[in-house]
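User: Hello, can you help with two protein structures?

Assistant: Certainly.
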Amino acid sequence: MKSILRRTFFLLFLILPGLGIAQPSVVISPANPMVCPGDPVTLTAGGVIATSYLWSTGATTNSITVSPQVPTQYWVQSNFLGNISSDTVIVGIYPQLSGNAGNDTTICTPGVTFWLDAGSYGGSNYVWQPFGIISPMYLVSGSGIYSVIITDFNGCNYYDTVKVAYDLPPTITLSSLPDTICKGDPVTFVVNPAILPNYAFFDNGNLVASGPSPTWTSLSLNPGSNITAVGITAAGCTTAVSATAQTMVFSKPLATVEVDTVCEGNATVFFVNAPAGISIQWSGDANLNGNSAILPFTYPSAGNFAWSCLLSNGICDTLISGTALVEAVPAAPLLHDTLVCQGEDAFLIVLETGGIYTWYDQPLGGFSLFSGNQLYLPALSQDQTYYVSSTLGNCTGPRTQVNAAVSIPPVADFTALPDTGQVMYYPNSTVNLTNLSFGGSQFQWDFGDGTSSNEFEASHFYPEAGFYAVSLIVTNGDGCADTLQKGNFEVRKLERVFVPNAFSPNGDGMNDRFELVVLGYADWDLQIFDRWGNLVFDNGGLGDNFWTGERNGKALTEGVYAFLLVLHDLEGKAYERRGSVTLIR
């Protein structure tokens, strides 16, 4: 029977939408509940038959459990065969209590009690543990962890916990070793028992050391110092009474010591400035020894020498030590004399490097002229003497003398015959040179045509036409030279040819021959041709320079005749010249 009713109900829900009858909506319960912060609450979807659910949290069950900390809205959708309905609720949160039952506390003093009070929460009920004391307040008299549950008027519970520790440090003592010192000597203070994690040491109330060590060593204890110490527990509690120890501190003698820095060979002066009644004892390298406030001492060489000065006031000693510096004196600089020609620049150069070099005009004293490793002397005209020393650190060595000698250059002079301005005609083209120089030992002639001579006097033949300058370089034994040049010397060749254009061999003594004028050539060939090209005269290379108008002793007729003239110069080169001449009867 129940199964029939279920089927009928199901069919009815299938039919109702088709009949236009309204369907029921899903309902969330409880509706808008209130909860304590963080408490759980279960929300259930009801009022309908649904095939599926979807909550705002993403859940798909018909109920969910939530624990909101603040007021939060939740919704659900139900689905029954495509019919969707929804509902929304807000889960409210009761106002949250706030307060403080007390801070965690460490008690450093025995017998101290105090109250923990949770009343600031404003709850309706308070329960303390341990012992279940029901009260807003709780009296603490020992170490432990104390917790309280506070219930407000809405039934919400709150919790608070306070940790209380009693940390009581032990009694300590302080001792010093030794109990009498000179100022600056070490003294060690020791705490007993050494069972605490930290200690603090004070000098006349001022913190001077702290840490886990139960000992403290001082090198700067002053007369009248009062040293105290406290122990500190892990919780920070200090011993109730400070341990005290005193050490008798005597002052050491005070003094200042001065030591000269000197050059080798000079006495080093040790000077101590100390009050009256102080004894002094010097010691150190090279058998340094003495007990006076001022002690001159000469070391055997350059170098660094250790020294010490022991001061005593009868109770305490002060030892002052240091190093005395004795600087080496540099040797005299090494350099050479120099020789220059008069009027040339000179350089005086130190041959070594190192140190600072200073130039003077006197072997001792005098004026400082220059600082550097070379002295420049421009256009030196006479011999000069200078002195140079080397300085290393604070020490200056002896001076070295150096000379700059001046050599007087020779004077070049000569005469020429023929002199410049006169034309020489080849082959009479020899110039004779007379040396008038003085002060020289070597001579070098340059004739201007690529040739030269080192004779004292010279003559030179010019085989080519041109303009030539002659130079004479005169050098003395120091290498100083003077040069004289003369020019121009002009050489010309007599290359002149005159050929007449007509002649009349009629025996009247005038122009009876066809006569050539040839100058400056070694020889020549002359040939005469008639108008038909027949050779009528040939001098045969004999150099004959005329033609009488005959052929083989027979006079030729008037007319125009051609000539060929071949000239040969001194070097054998040939030059042709052609023309014509008229024979007149």
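That covers the first. Now for the second protein you mentioned:
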Amino acid sequence: MNRSKTYKTLFYSLLIFSLSFEANSIEKCKWNNKEGVPCITVSKTPNTSFYSEKGIKKTIITKKDIIDSGAVDVNDAMKLVNGIDIFQSGTKGQTTSIFTRGSESNHTLVLLNGIAINDQSVTDGLHDFGQDFIQNIQQIEVYKGSNGSHFGPSAIAGAVNFITDIDYVNSYSISGFNLKNYSLNNNYTKITNNDWHFNIKGAANSSDTKSAIAGGKESDDVKNYQLSFDGVKWFNDNAKFKTSLYSRQTKADYDGSSTDESGYVSDNKMYAFQSSFEHKKEDTLSDLKLHYHNYDRKYDNSGYLDEYYSQAIVARGEREIKKNEKLSFGYGAEYKYDWGNFENRGSYNASTKGHIKNFGTFANSAYKLSENQIFSIFLRADDHSTTELNDSYKLNFLQNFGDLNLNISHSTGLRNPTLYELYGTDNYGIKGNKNLDPEKSKTNELNLDYNISNNLTLKTSLYKTEIYDRIESNAAYTQHENLKTNINQEGIENEIALTNKFRSFSVFSNFSKSRKNNGQAQNRRPDLSYGAKYKSKIFDNYIDDLNINLAYKHTGKYTDWDGSANTIQKSTDLVDLNLNKGFFGNVLSLNINNLFDEDYEKPATYSQNGREIIFKFTKKLN
């Protein structure tokens, strides 16, 4: 046998051994995971049980996905999720809204480990994704479609769940392309002799590129800092305690408007604390969770200080039971208390102060009609301090035809009014309305998953949603009211993927319509988007693997306000490339965003970055 064949035999033997070792390691990644083995986080969807959870549809963005994409903030990580459109008013750190399946930006509920964290000091209740950088997040879960029966109010269009968890790969990294544009992060985990697992993550980000305003002359600077702590203690094989501390601060130069560069200097802080106790046996799972978070936001506008502050406490208990081989069910309750206030000074005056209490009870049940059929029902009732008692539900039927899985659901959702919509005032005469009803929705959805072959899969989702009792200012701009102008949304999402051990290629598309019942199109809702993702691992016999990640997305034309009228905005074609190469436990990465340097505004009048070339070095310490 020649030397070349000897090397190849040794290489493939090591490969087989490593794959076998990985399989054994994954086997250890069960619920207790006392071994501290790096693995994908397994997150339970609230208000589900053993069989009903099989019908849940969610997109999971793992830590590996985040690293492979070269993502710096949440927008980077989520921009390729089919059915989601991201609009950021400028470059990193600027205000960002997402539109899930063409719905309103405040119809997507944002959660931290399953607990809602939308800021109640925001006038319309939307979450600003531009403040969330990614280094301390272990996983992102995206739920599309009405999910009120699982997560509660505001999940009309869907939910985004940020997962914090212990990362067992100790490392530090530095990335960027100059001294003003960089990211630093560190991860460290310690396992003690008495089964305590401690993890601390820290990160700092700096961005200083072009002005947020299209054609602007100044640069807008952003600084972001993150610090988090996660701890887990096993009492025995069936019981564990978890605690999490998460904090972030984002300081950014904001422009005053789409034409005024003088703007604001913002200081946006968010802190969250969670503790939970979980008890698991073969046929039962019980979870008690306590949560607190607050937002502290300040905007300095040439001497005028705008202040926004809110806090929330949450207590939730849940239990699921597998009764027998056909029936499972679960039940629980959640109490949430929000209070907040803001004072907006300067040429625009607005203020509000108040609190909201909500007590939710929920239950679910699933019955296996046969080995290939499961029918599930999910119910939730929310007793709100002003809108009183309202319910949401989901009916789900799951059918398996061998390689074809059919999932049909009918669901409802709601969004309760915000503090500003209930109690707020401004100098234009708008006043709050304590008699508002919640916004509500009805959604029908069909999902098909077809394994065409061992390596080829097809996924299709068809949906139709009606949103009614929408909350907006009345025609006289004197107060908020429930309008009779409904929104109708419908669409089809497709993805076909070809995968093997070393590479994958997928193509996705989204055809959607979001229209008012008078036929008028919603702004910032493109009817068409499509794209492709390619991943490849090239084995190097001498040092380590080379990973190639290539992503492309086309966003079609849409209407938007250009400062004077609604106009048609051009389509965009964006390509990102990430290369990472391992050597002796270290990783070198090259990330090129907007590879072909496309010049575009999204939304209108706000510029986005051109081509960015980012280098990254990661040192693994395990």
